[in-house]
Amino acid sequence: MSPKTQQQFQELREQKKMQILNAALKVIANHGYNGATISMIAREAGISKGLLYSYYESKEQLLEALISFGMEKAAAFMEDPDAGKPHSKESFAAMLRKMIQMVMQESDFWRMYTTLLLQPNMSGKIQPQAQKFVEQYLGIYIAYFQKKGSRNPMAEAMLFGAVLDGLMFDLMVAPDQYPLEEVLEMIVEKFA
Amino acid sequence: MSPKTQQQFQELREQKKMQILNAALKVIANHGYNGATISMIAREAGISKGLLYSYYESKEQLLEALISFGMEKAAAFMEDPDAGKPHSKESFAAMLRKMIQMVMQESDFWRMYTTLLLQPNMSGKIQPQAQKFVEQYLGIYIAYFQKKGSRNPMAEAMLFGAVLDGLMFDLMVAPDQYPLEEVLEMIVEKFA
Amino acid sequence: MSPKTQQQFQELREQKKMQILNAALKVIANHGYNGATISMIAREAGISKGLLYSYYESKEQLLEALISFGMEKAAAFMEDPDAGKPHSKESFAAMLRKMIQMVMQESDFWRMYTTLLLQPNMSGKIQPQAQKFVEQYLGIYIAYFQKKGSRNPMAEAMLFGAVLDGLMFDLMVAPDQYPLEEVLEMIVEKFA
Amino acid sequence: MSPKTQQQFQELREQKKMQILNAALKVIANHGYNGATISMIAREAGISKGLLYSYYESKEQLLEALISFGMEKAAAFMEDPDAGKPHSKESFAAMLRKMIQMVMQESDFWRMYTTLLLQPNMSGKIQPQAQKFVEQYLGIYIAYFQKKGSRNPMAEAMLFGAVLDGLMFDLMVAPDQYPLEEVLEMIVEKFA
DNA sequence: TATGAATGAGATTTCATTCAT
DNA sequence: AATGAATGAAATCTCATTCAT
Fold first, then answer.
1. Domain final position from A17, A37, A57
2. Which residue has the higher pLDDT, A12 or D2?
3. Which member of A85, B71, C47, C192 lies 3.0 to 4.6 Å from C51 by CB, making a disulfide possible if both were Cys?
């Protein structure tokens, strides 16, 4: 068996960590943190419980990794230059669509995220990271509504935030037959 | 001497059931169904674990009772004649405020409700009742936007639903210093 | 309400004790001592748990009362002059029938009795009384087989005892369509 | 290096299952199903309670496994060619002895079996398997008594069955100083 | 006397974590 | 690295017994 270089070795480890992370995300999103068991996660990842513990030292730590991982992806999205800073009706609509898409693509993560935020019990784990994220996009939209001449840019931004949160929620709960296109148009009409 | 009338017994039982229900709601809202333990609930209710089981035959059944109880209250609110059917900008605003108030007053219930809906695992327990509730208020607002001459009353109603959901979510997650008044005004401006 | 005489009072108590005893017998015979709960017994007796405890101070004591009561009835049967001491083929057959009848009439008791004897755990409670009973009827049959000129009266008596035990067992397990008559004839043919 | 072959694992599991089965049999035979606790069984098996549940998913399922296991052994005995079908006084005696021996060797199982049959509550679990077994040996003896020219082979077979059941019962209850030899001779004298 | 609510000990069951191989 | 057997603490649930009314 070919001896692996340090490099290859690290890559394999990284790969396996992802595999576990994805499995954990799926299971925790569907069952909640407390409802998800290590066995379920290991089974979903196709590895043994023991091996899982050689990658993450506890269930709690696994959750933390999961949160960081998801938030990093979200942050990356926010920093994506061609996504950020809407400046016209068209780019507003485009960005809106992109965000919705991100949420739907990573819906497991956002379901978990939402659930965690709602439980005071758990929210400590996610609040700090969520805070930053929310402030960031709030800032962007305050600026947008300001430029547009809104009477109260901050309130409008917060309302728009609520729209996004609510839409995300509705899509997560009942994605089938949701008239997304029509609702998006309505949003653009009212906010862009 | 008969120790206690049937009537008295019944009342006491009903009272204690409420006491348990409230304790359960509080604990489950804060820790999630799986994170909440019977011990926590019994402690919160000020009774022994054993006694809890003489009122509810299992943890699962307790959850069901909790859901029914909350949904009944919500349904009662919807049927309250002076709450329903907005017909003017003023009554729209009034109803909006009333709904927000209801949600904030029963915020434990709505936190639990939301969390359950987000977990496919659990959502079966709540979907049927939630469905009916959502359809009801959607109907009311479709009618309202229709009368107002909306270009797409159904999409506008769904968007408004998302606004309510998102607002509710934001209020539950970070109620302090939320500029509720300003946001409400903004909603009225855009939707009423 | 008419004040009761001491006498009436005692009778009522005695009646209620019987009622409890019969309920307990039924439940314990069907579920076993450990499978039977005080609640079941009280419900069967149509009284409250609390009241039951004013008649019998513990589940264990209730069992003891049950055993004594059953064994006394059995002993009474043995002492019944026109039942005891077979002396001819006819009286042998008659007594056999009477015993079978007793067992079938009190089948709950005998089921419980059998079950208890089979559990070393419990047998202490019943062994002493059972012992006496068995010795008594063994004595009777040893005498009978002796008089009949059996080659080994004691072995024949024990075998006959096994026949009775086995028959009782079979009848308790599957009473329907058991060809009792034919088997009894066969017993008489072989033993009387 | 793969830590253990699938094969080895399977074998170890099989071994441990037996260990648990034997412990369970001993404890349940002595205390009854409801009187036996998982703790007792685990202690007897020398393992933790938790581990027991990785082999049998519930106490009830453990009981079922126990029954199947015992009945299979009994069935194997019945199918043993040199045990079956008595055809002469000698082979009748031999088979009788073999059956007694089997019962005494597996006396825990037969105690449990008997107790279960006597409790309507539980008998559902064992009836189906017991039925088949009983019919099988009844068939064998009906044939035997027929060949012997019995006036009523079926009744004689059932009586013989009762003898076996009763003998088994007596041996289980008071094995010490039971004059087994003499009684067996008596049986042979009367039935063979 | 009579009730059934209430308790607490203990039973069954689950699961994060460790460990021998 | 990889497995899953094994543990033990904690969770859910049951029930004999007590007690206020």
1. A57
2. A12
3. C47
Decide if A170 and B179 are in contact by the 8 Å CB cutoff: no
- Is B172 in CB contact (< 8 Å) with chain A? yes
The residues, any chain, with a CB within 8 Å of residue A179's CB and separated by 6 or more, are B154, B155, B158
Residue A34 and residue D22: Cα distance in Å, rounded?
36
Kindly state whether residues C72 and C151 are assigned to the same domain: yes
Asked if the Cβ of residue C42 lies within 7 A of any atom of strand F, the reply is no
pTM of the predicted structure, to 2 decimals: 0.92
Q: Do chains A and C touch (3 or more CB pairs under 8 A)?
A: no
Neighboring chains of B (3 or more beta-carbon pairs < 8 A): A
CATH number for the domain including D154? Answer: 1.10.357
D10 touches strand F (CB under 7 A): no
What SS3 class is residue C150? coil
CATH of the domain at B48: 1.10.10.60
Mean pLDDT, rounded, for C180-186: 97
Identify the residue whose tokens are 């089948």.
Answer: C107
Q: Inter-chain contact D162–C169, Cβ cutoff 8 Å?
A: yes
Q: Which residues of chain A have pLDDT under 70?
A: 1-4, 81-84
Question: Tokens representing B167?
Answer: 């607002």
Residue of chain A with shortest Cα separation from B171: A162
Domain containing residue B53: 1-57
CATH of the domain at A118: 1.10.357.10
What is the spatial distance, in angstroms and rounded to an integer, between the CA atom of C18 and the C1' atom of F20?
28
Look at residue D3 and tell me whether its pLDDT is greater than 60: no
DSSP class per residue in A83-120: TS---SHHHHHHHHHHHHHHHHHTHHHHHHHHHHHH-H
Find chain B residues with C-beta within 8 A of A190's C-beta.
159, 190
Do A76 and A132 belong together in one domain?
A: yes
A34 touches strand F (CB under 7 A): no
Return the CA Rg of chain D: 20
Q: A84 touching B, CB under 8 A?
A: no
**Which DSSP helix (H) or strand (E) runs through A37?**
none
Chain D residue numbers with beta carbons less than 8 Å from the beta carbon of C30 are: 119-121
What is the spatial distance between Cα B136 and Cα B152, in angstroms, rounded to a whole number? Answer: 18
How many distinct helices (H) and strands (E) make up chain C? 9, 0
Angle in degrees, 0-180, between the axes of helices D153-173 and C180-191, rounded to the nearest 10: 80
pLDDT tens digits, C71-113: 988 888 877 766 668 889 999 999 999 999 999 999 999 999 9
**B65 beta carbon < 7 A from strand F?**
no
Tokens 């012997």 belong to residue: D148
Residue carrying the six token digits 């076993």: C32
Chain B residues in contact with A170 (beta carbon < 8 A): 158, 161-162, 165
- Residue B138 sits at the vertex; the CA angle it makes with B137 and B144, to the nearest 5 degrees, is 95
* D165 close contact with C: CB closer than 8 A: yes
* Residues A184 and A126 occupy one common structural domain: yes
SS3 C53: helix
Q: Is the CB of D54 under 7 A from strand F?
A: yes
Q: Of the residues D57, D77, D101, which one is the last residue of a structural domain?
A: D57
Phi/psi of residue A146, nearest 5 degrees: -60, -55
Question: If you average pLDDT over every residue of chain B, what do you get?
Answer: 92
